[in-house]
Amino acid sequence: MIDARLHEHVTTGASGGVKWAGAGQIIVTVVAIVLTAGLALRALAPPAVLPAQDVPLTQFSAARAMDHLKIIARTPHPSGSAELAQVREYLLAQLRSLGLQTEVQQTKVVTNVLARMAGTGGGKAVLLVGHYDTVPHSPGAGDDGLAVVSMLETLRALKASTPPRSDVIALFTDGEELGLLGAKAFAYDHPWSKDVGLVLNFDARGNRGPVLMFEMSEHNELLIDAMAQSGSAPFANSMMRDVYKLLPNDTDFTVFREAGYAGLNFAPVNGFSFYHNSSDSLENVSDRTLQQMGSYMLALAQHFANLGATPTANSDAIYFNLPGIALVRYREGWVLPLTLAIALLFAAIVGMGSWKKTLSPGVATGFLSLLLSLLAVAAITAIGSWLASTLEGGAGVITLGDTTRSNLYVLGLVVLAVAATAGVYACFRWVRAEDLVAGALAGWLLLLVLTSVFLPGGSYLFAWPLLMALAAFALWMRRRSGRIAVLLACAIPGVLLFVPLVYLLISALTFKMTPILLLPVALLLGLILPHFKTTAA
């Protein structure tokens, strides 16, 4: 019955009123969006675990590293405790068994453990950093046991491989949970700190899911290029980098960044409900996350140690993943020229449309409809997230994977966001499709300008989908055909960029942020929904 009515609308002659697109176009578009979102999320999945047996000794094996974690994460081991002293003795025994030069850096408060593997030539050393202390009531299997055992297994694999050109130093810091005390002691007081050219810090805000490169040092244009060329480029984007700067969070990397070291900062964020409590234990940690962290650590340590020198530049980079394809990066100095070019293209398309009478003052109404849909999504998802928290007994924090229902909660909030946006646009069915799309494009342009000025690392989220949508819209305005291609051009780029980022941010920042994090649903639908109808001549 629904299909027949839709077909009747799309085949009716120009008798006035609104004509809705055929069901086939809707189905193709929805299927393409769902498949694209699924592929983007699938690309985030950590790799399979390499077993301890039948795997070359030069490769990282999470199974081998897990044997260390079974010992290290038995009990909580906060700074200054007898349990931490036992972990320290275990680390020293393992490092010495590898034939590494080891040191213990003792201060009045903390005790760092260091190991050094000599390279074959000159150049600054690569420093691997992870903290081996925990908060008082947590075994710390995720925070930061994942990093500690990854360092042990990485050093073992490096010893089994051809020695790199530069030295590799491993720093197991104490007192991170007390205020980054171990990192400060090394950076400012230990003689080996003067030999370091690059810092690779590994921490955890959860105990599962993909390992993210969420922070890096300044002047990073060439550093991000070198990371991408390592053959093991992690999920990373400059939006996370710029947002993290605004948060009141610190890791050991903060000390090194403020001291002027070049470097990269990594952590998994899924499983936040296990963070800093007694459930951050061995049985809850993901061995696939461990495999990914260790694989990154080994590949990056080998790559940068063989470079012999840390790549430096005078500018920062904009960078983002095309999931499963590549790490795209370009100079931050290109942001404003690119924004200006897109603004001029938008002005040319709207100007030409107004001259040819294909666009009208209804464009302003199109902008208003996008704004109202954003407000509707924020309101309805705020209510939905409150209801989800209520259903979970008033839990203050709900993140993806916290309960068996949490993924369904997220899906439900997305459905609510879609319904809210569709409801708003249904109220504007008297506005021509061209004007609605042009108004939505104006909203995207406004967000591009704002991010380019105030949050340049996030400008790519709006620049490239907007550019594709403008090109498709211009062709559609000219030829009045190829609606499916136009729909896909408006939908796919935004889905590729937003879906994995929103998923990870919900995991890291919890349901409380969904009123903001699900706003891209309205932004994307603002480019898509108007194409499902046309106004008669």
Describe this structure in words.
This protein is α/β, with parallel strands linked by helices and 537 residues long. It is 53% helix and 13% strand. It has helices at residues 2-11, 23-42, 62-72, 82-97, 141-160, 181-189, 221-228, 238-246, 252-258, 287-307, 335-355, 362-391, 406-426, 433-454, 460-479, 483-509, 514-517, 519-528; strands at residues 18-20, 101-106, 111-117, 125-131, 168-173, 196-202, 208-216, 235-236, 262-270, 317-322, 326-331, 533-535. The strands form three sheets. An eight-stranded mixed sheet has the order 2-3-5-4-6-9-7-8, with helices on both faces. The chain is elongated. It starts with a helix and ends with a strand. Mean pLDDT is 90; it is low at 1-20.
Compact summary:
Helix content is 53%, strand content 13%.
Q: What level of helicity do the residues show? A: 40-55%
Largest sheet: 8 strands, mixed
Overall 3D form? elongated
The radius of gyration is 26 Å
Name the average pLDDT.
Answer: 90
Count, helices: 18
Tell me the total number of β-strands. 12
Strand % is 5-15%
Helix and strand content put the structural class at alpha/beta
